[in-house]
C-alpha cells in the first residue's frame, strides 16, 4: 500500500507525531503532495502559530466567511509570535474563535490596553493554557504609551471576572528592556502594569482557583507581597516562576510559608542572594519554612476558636472540650466578660474576650515535611567557579533546617503524649477554622511524618539561569517549566 492509499485514520495517527511548531507546514505539504488522499484538513487549523502580521489578516479573511463555521471550531491551539500586528484585526479574529484551549499572545507596541481587555471581555470555558508576553517597545524605546497612561492593569481585572473554569497554566511576562537600548538612550524600564493590586485580585478570583503553574515576570517590581500575603490565593500552586522580579530572601521565605504544595520555584535574575554567605540561610529556609507555616496556621486557628467560642464544634476525631466548672459566689474581675478598653488601633492587636464557662481547647499544628523539589536561582553576582561552594553551603543549611524541624516535631510529640491535641495541615484552606486540618490520633502517623522529613534530600539547585546555554542540573525546575510553557525563555 502506498502513502496516497492510506485510510484517513492512519493519516491522523501520523500527524499526531509531528512537531507542533511545524505542523501546519507539514500538513500543507502533505496535502499538496497527495491531493487526492483523505488527509484530514482540520489538523491545519488545530495548531495555529502566526509569525507575520499579514498571516493574521489572511486567516481572518478565510475564517470570517459564513461557511467557515467548522474551521473556526477546529482551532484549539492559537499563538501570535510577532510584535507588530494590526491589533484591531487580531481582536476580531479571536472574537470568532470559540473553542481555543491554548492561547499565546505577544503584546507589542501596536496594542492598547483596550485591545487586550476586549480579547478577555468574554470568558473562554475551554481555555487551559494562557500566556501573555508584553513588549511595548521594539527597536526604539519610547515612553509614549506610558505618558498617556496606557497601562495593562485592566487585563488582569478582566480575567479576574471570569467564572471558575479550569486553568492549570498561566504566564504573564514583561520582557526586560534590552540593555543596549537602556544604556544608549538612558531609558529606564517602562511600566506595563502601573499598579500591582490587580495581581492579588486575579490570584484570589474563582477563575484561578485551580491554577497549578504560574509564571509572573515583571522586571524589578516587588510582586511577592501581592502573591504571598493573601491566604486564599492559588491554593493548588505547585510551580512558581518570578524571574526578573525584585525578590528578597524574606520574600522567598514568605512564598514557601504561604504555598502548601509548592514543588518548584524559579527566581532567575532576582538577585535574592547577593552574597555567597547567604546560601546557608537559603537552604535552612527551604527546610524550615513548614515550621513557620504551622505556627501561622496554629495562630489563625486559635483566633478563630476564640471568636467562635460559644458555637464551636470540633472536627470528627477530636473530643469536645469540657465546660469549665462555675463556682458559686462573687465573680471577680478575672472572670469579667466585658471590657472598658477602647477599640484597638491598627497597630494594636485585638483583644478577644471569651464568654465565661467556655474553655478554648489547646490545639497544636505539627509542621509537615518540606515539599520543595527544585530551586533555580541565578544572577550576575554568581560566577561559575562559585557553583560548587554554593551547592555545599545550600546543602549545609538544608540539613541544619531539617535538624531544627526534627527538634520541633520531637517537642510536639512529647506534648501529644501528654494529651495535647495535635493536627496536621492537609490542604491550603486559608485558615478558616478547622478547614484543611486533620487530627493526629495515632502514634504511627506522627512517627512516619517525622521520619520522612528527617531523611529528605535537598531540592535540586540549578544555577544555570534561563535558556539552554548554561549547564542545567538534571531534573531542575527549568526542565519542568519548559515542558509546561513549551518555550525555553
Give the CA-CA distance, first to last residue.
Answer: 44 Å
Counting helices, strands and paired strands, the structural category is alpha/beta
Mean pLDDT level:
83
Shape: globular
Spans of at least 5 consecutive residues whose pLDDT stays below 50 are 319-351
Task: Describe the model.
The protein is of the alpha/beta class and 489 residues long. A 10-stranded parallel beta sheet has the order 1-2-3-4-5-6-7-8-10-13. A 3-stranded mixed beta sheet has the order 9-11-12. It has helices spanning 8-15, 23-33, 43-46, 53-63, 69-74, 87-95, 113-119, 144-147, 153-160, 179-185, 197-203, 225-228, 249-258, 278-307, 387-417, 443-454, 477-485, and strands at 47-50, 77-80, 102-107, 129-134, 169-174, 213-217, 239-241, 264-266, 363-366, 374-376, 421-425, 437-439, 460-462. The chain has 17 helices and 13 strands. Strand 7 (239-241), helix 13 (249-258) and strand 8 (264-266) form a beta-alpha-beta unit.
Amino acid at each position: 500500500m502506498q502513502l496516497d492509499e492510506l485510510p484517513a485514520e492512519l493519516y491522523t495517527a501520523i500527524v499526531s507525531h509531528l512537531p507542533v511548531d511545524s505542523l501546519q507546514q507539514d500538513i500543507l505539504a502533505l496535502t499538496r503532495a497527495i491531493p487526492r488522499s483523505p488527509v484530514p484538513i482540520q489538523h491545519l487549523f488545530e495548531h495555529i502559530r502566526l509569525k507575520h502580521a499579514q498571516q493574521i489578516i489572511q486567516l481572518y479573511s478565510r475564517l470570517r466567511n459564513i461557511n467557515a463555521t467548522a474551521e473556526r471550531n477546529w482551532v484549539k491551539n492559537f499563538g501570535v509570535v510577532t510584535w507588530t500586528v494590526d491589533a484591531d484585526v487580531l481582536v476580531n479574529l479571536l472574537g470568532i474563535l470559540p473553542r481555543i484551549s491554548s492561547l499565546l499572545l505577544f503584546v507589542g507596541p501596536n496594542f492598547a490596553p483596550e485591545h487586550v481587555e476586549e480579547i478577555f471581555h468574554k470568558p473562554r470555558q475551554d481555555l487551559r493554557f494562557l500566556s501573555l508576553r508584553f513588549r511595548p517597545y521594539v527597536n526604539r524605546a519610547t515612553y509614549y504609551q506610558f505618558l498617556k497612561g496606557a497601562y495593562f492593569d485592566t487585563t488582569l481585572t478582566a480575567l479576574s471576572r471570569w467564572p471558575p473554569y479550569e486553568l492549570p497554566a498561566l504566564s504573564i511576562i514583561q520582557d526586560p528592556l534590552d540593555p543596549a537600548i537602556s544604556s544608549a538612550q538612558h531609558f529606564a524600564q517602562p511600566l506595563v502594569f502601573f499598579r500591582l493590586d490587580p495581581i492579588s485580585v486575579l490570584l484570589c478570583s474563582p477563575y484561578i482557583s485551580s491554577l497549578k503553574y504560574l509564571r509572573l515576570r515583571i522586571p524589578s517590581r516587588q510582586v511577592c507581597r501581592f502573591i504571598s500575603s493573601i491566604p486564599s490565593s492559588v491554593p493548588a500552586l505547585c510551580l512558581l516562576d518570578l524571574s526578573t522580579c525584585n525578590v528578597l530572601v524574606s520574600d522567598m521565605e514568605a512564598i514557601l510559608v504561604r504555598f502548601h504544595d509548592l514543588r518548584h520555584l524559579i527566581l532567575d535574575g532576582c538577585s535574592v542572594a547577593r552574597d555567597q554567605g547567604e546560601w546557608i540561610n537559603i537552604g535552612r529556609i527551604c527546610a524550615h519554612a513548614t515550621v513557620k507555616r504551622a505556627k501561622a496556621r496554629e495562630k489563625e486557628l486559635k483566633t478563630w476558636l476564640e471568636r467562635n467560642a460559644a458555637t464551636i464544634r470540633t472536627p470528627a476525631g477530636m473530643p469536645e472540650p469540657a465546660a469549665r466548672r462555675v463556682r458559686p459566689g462573687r465573680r471577680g474581675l478575672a472572670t469579667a466578660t466585658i471590657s472598658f478598653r477602647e477599640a484597638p488601633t491598627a497597630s494594636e492587636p485585638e483583644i478577644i474576650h471569651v464568654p465565661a464557662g467556655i474553655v478554648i481547647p489547646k490545639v497544636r499544628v505539627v509542621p509537615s515535611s518540606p515539599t520543595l523539589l527544585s530551586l533555580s536561582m541565578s544572577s550576575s553576582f554568581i560566577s561559575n567557579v562559585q557553583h560548587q561552594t554554593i551547592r555545599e553551603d545550600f546543602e549545609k543549611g538544608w540539613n541544619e533546617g531539617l535538624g531544627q524541624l526534627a527538634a520541633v516535631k520531637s517537642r510536639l510529640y512529647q506534648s501529644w503524649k501528654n494529651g495535647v491535641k495535635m493536627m496536621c495541615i492537609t490542604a491550603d484552606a486559608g485558615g478558616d477554622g478547622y478547614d484543611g486540618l486533620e487530627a493526629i490520633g495515632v502514634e504511627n502517623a506522627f512517627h512516619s511524618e517525622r521520619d520522612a522529613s528527617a531523611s529528605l534530600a535537598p531540592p535540586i539547585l540549578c544555577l544555570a539561569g534561563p535558556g539552554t546555554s548554561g549547564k542545567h542540573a538534571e531534573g531542575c525546575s527549568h526542565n519542568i517549566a519548559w515542558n509546561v510553557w513549551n518555550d525555553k525563555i
